[in-house]
Amino acid sequence: MPPRNAAAAEATLSTRPAEPSDLPVVIALDAEITGLAKEQYWKEQYEWYGRKRLDRFFIIAESDGTPVGFIVGEIRAWEFGSSPSGWIFAVNVKPDARLQGVASLLVDTICACFRLAGVSTVRTMVRKDQTLLTSFFRSQGMRAGPFIELEKSL
Amino acid sequence: MRLQVATRLALYAILELASDPDRQFSATEIADRFGISVNHLSKVLRSLGRAGLVEAVRGAGGGYRFVGNAKRITLLDLIRLFEDVDSSGEGGREAADATPEGRVLGSVLEEIEDITRVTLSSISVATMLKLIAAERHPQRKPEGVVPLFGG
Fold it and tell me: Each residue of B55-106: pLDDT tens digit?
């Protein structure tokens, strides 16, 4: 049986590594939020992140045994001159399961994985207009780091 | 960025009141805690009351208490009650604003102000209280969560 984490205050919440059978739920949840069903994209993401390696993580949150959210991340090193650090690429929770600590448990879980792998910094990138998501990461103690994203139209 | 005095007093008052929403704090108590003018603070508390963020409790043992939603009210919400953070620059438009130099300078300043607004709008009162708790107890780490991989 894979390892699990149960939230201290909410005994019904737990996290576990993603399984291939979770993909339909992940695709549906992402489609519910973004309005786009990206089946092939999530299959490729699972192939890359879901193989239970020690540097790539695809984690599912369950409430009473039902998947209600997921988080995806990996450890990357030396891009932009950065020493190894954990990156969170996606976090998503079903709207009717929010405000119950699901996303916080997912972040705590992936941070524990990052810590075990030996990194001491976790990063993510959020669109400036995604206030709710930015507020969530802020509530987890994250703040502006040493990098600034720059771009231009081509 | 430098906030006006009234704005800073409002932020200190809200953070103190929201730290224990069941408790009533007197204006003197909050003023003493931060070393600020009780008269000025009282005016600020009245503004916060009109905004529906604090409630004045009259009578013996009365005072103010926080009645807002700490998870939803952001620093930007509070600052906007006391000052304008949405218009660029001070003193209105100038003729030079229409020149290429003025337009480029304006766009750079707008980029900076945009980051300021995004930052202030992403930090709730609840997040500020968490940061303050971490400032008081810097060694505390999340407990009880184990890695799912390896080990």
Answer: 998 877 779 999 999 999 999 999 999 998 876 555 567 889 899 999 999 9
Neighbours of A140 (CB within 10 A): 19
Do the chains contact at A108 and B145, CB–CB below 8 Å?
yes
For chain B, give every domain's residue range. 5-87+95-136
Please state the rounded mean pLDDT for residues B144-150.
67
User: Beta A85-93 vs A122-123: how paired, if at all?
Assistant: parallel
Q: Residue A68 has which token pair? A: 């209600």
**What residue ranges in B44-141 does DSSP mark as E strands?**
54-57, 63-66
User: Who among B130, B145, B149 is closest to A139 (CB)?
Assistant: B130
Query: CATH topology for B5-87+95-136?
Result: Arc Repressor Mutant, subunit A (1.10.10)
**pLDDT, position B151:** 46
The answer to whether position A33 is within a domain reads yes
Tokens of B109: 């300043």
Residue B67's SS3 state is coil
Provide the 8-state DSSP code for B122. Answer: T
Cα B28 to Cα B57: distance, rounded to the nearest angstrom: 14
- What residues make up the domain containing A20? 5-139
Q: What is the CATH number of the domain that holds A38?
A: 3.40.630.30
A151 located within any domain: no
- Tell me which residues of chain A have a C-beta less than 8 Å from any C-beta of chain B: 2-5, 8, 15-17, 52-54, 57, 59, 105, 108-109, 111-113, 115-117, 128, 131, 134-135, 138-139, 141, 144
Q: Which long-range contacts (CB under 8 A, 24 or more apart) does A76-85 make?
A: A80/A147, A82/A147, A83/A121, A84/A118, A84/A119, A85/A114, A85/A119, A85/A120, A85/A121, A85/A122, A85/A123
Is the complex ipTM higher than 0.85?
no
